[in-house]
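tool=predict chain=A
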Amino acid sequence: MTDLYDSNMTPTDALTAMRFHHQLLPQKTIYFEPHHPITGELADQFKEKATRSKASRSTATCR
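tool=predict ok
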């Protein structure tokens, strides 16, 4: 719902948008949904900052 209002996305765009999660520990680790990995410029920026990205084990998405 946040994407619909804050980013003016269509429902289809909001559902297909990449989602990732960051928490305090482990440090510098970003979890992403396995079916939509982090790629491109965003992945390059994470690598420059020595941030690890891992596929999430959970299939549920909390927003």
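The first strand starts at residue 20 and ends at 22. Confidence is low (pLDDT under 50) at residues 59-63.
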